[in-house]
Design brief:
- Pfam families: DUF58.
- This is DUF58 domain-containing protein.
- Helices cover 33% and strands 20% of the residues.
- It contains eight helices and ten strands.
- A six-stranded mixed beta sheet has the order 5-4-3-6-7-10, sandwiched between helices. It has a two-stranded antiparallel sheet with strand order 1-2. A two-stranded antiparallel sheet has the order 8-9.
- β4 and β5 form a beta hairpin.
Length: 317
């Protein structure tokens, strides 16, 4: 059986991609998302995260990772096994994207840059959460400035939002990202209950956990982690010059076996810490990488989420 060729997101280089090339790139991205996700989805708002609802659904046995706030104590007492009560998704959903485009995302050694994956993730969420009168908005932060797109409904608005994200200017070299500040910008003013999706590489200090947890009291959360293989390991290249775009520092290294092992261990420890922090906030984590087929990762994640909530999966491959 032949394998499906990998899907590469369009490249969005601010200042280089002009109309009609930008329009064509966004259209290609939209078609990619629709073609692959149409077979997975059916029903309303049962995509990346089943939305909270006012109508009670079926009860099922508790599984590790379930929200304990959804425990159905009457069924638990009757069956002597812990059960959670599922809910029917609301008819209207407001989604907010927090897109981290700090300088560390202007990098990639796979088939694209991390920044391109961030735009692709926004397109997937826009499609999954759009339609049916739903509203979607975004805050985009580079560390140097924040761009806001108000929450509105309709396909034209979603396209305009993606265009705004894709054309966000790059921050100057040496600019530190501010993920905590980006998340905080979604807390005030207070927004209607809905879904918050945070897209970032989550590199740097984990000083955003408290802000993310504060959002979880009012919103469903999803974290999208965008990574490159060089975030995880160093190649054996001998003498190299490395540049940190968020501090502007340049260092010379010799990539010895010990250095590579220390780097990989530190990267693994940081990723584990990110997972724990995200999980403590009640948010699932979707990981996209520049060296993998990103749309397949989205499809698998959506299918797994639907299955875990008892929703039938159609067309998943």
């Amino acid at each position: 059986m032949s394998r499906r060729p990998p899907v590469t997101p369009p490249t969005f280089r601010s200042g280089e991609l002009r109309d009609p090339a930008l329009t064509a790139a966004l259209r290609t991205l939209e078609l990619t998302v629709r073609r692959r996700l149409d077979g997975v989805l059916h029903g309303d708002h049962l995509g990346l995260i089943p939305g909270p609802g006012s109508e009670p659904g079926d009860a099922r046995e508790y599984q590790p990772g379930d929200d304990v706030r959804q425990m159905d104590w009457s069924v638990t007492a009757r069956t002597t096994h812990p059960h959670v009560r599922q809910t029917v998704a609301d008819r209207e959903l407001e989604t907010w994207l927090a897109i981290d485009l700090s300088p560390s995302l202007d990098f990639g050694t796979g088939v694209c840059e991390k920044r391109d994956l961030a735009v692709a993730a926004a397109a997937a969420v826009g499609y999954l959460a759009g339609g049916g009168g739903n509203r979607i908005g975004a805050v985009v932060g580079t560390g140097a400035h924040t761009r806001r797109v108000p929450a509105r409904g309709g396909q034209l608005h979603t396209q305009a939002m993606l265009r705004s994200i894709a054309t966000t200017p790059h921050a100057p070299d040496g600019t530190r990202g501010d993920l905590r500040g980006l998340i905080e910008s979604l807390r005030r003013p207070q927004r209607r209950r809905g879904l918050v999706v945070v897209v970032s590489d989550f590199l740097g200090p984990i000083d955003w956990e408290r802000s993310l947890r504060a959002l979880s009291g009012r919103h469903d959360l999803l974290a999208v982690e965008v990574l490159d293989r060089r975030d995880l390991e160093l190649p054996d290249l001998g003498d190299v010059v490395l540049h940190d775009p968020e501090t502007g520092r340049i260092r010379e290294f010799t990539t010895t076996e010990q250095l590579r092992a220390d780097y990989a261990r530190a990267a693994t420890e940081h990723r584990d810490a990110v997972r724990r922090a995200v999980r403590s906030c009640g948010a699932p984590l979707l990981t996209l990488r520049t060296d993998r087929n990103w749309i397949d990762d989205v499809v698998r994640f959506v299918a797994a989420r639907r299955h875990s909530f008892g929703a039938p999966v159609k067309g998943a491959r």
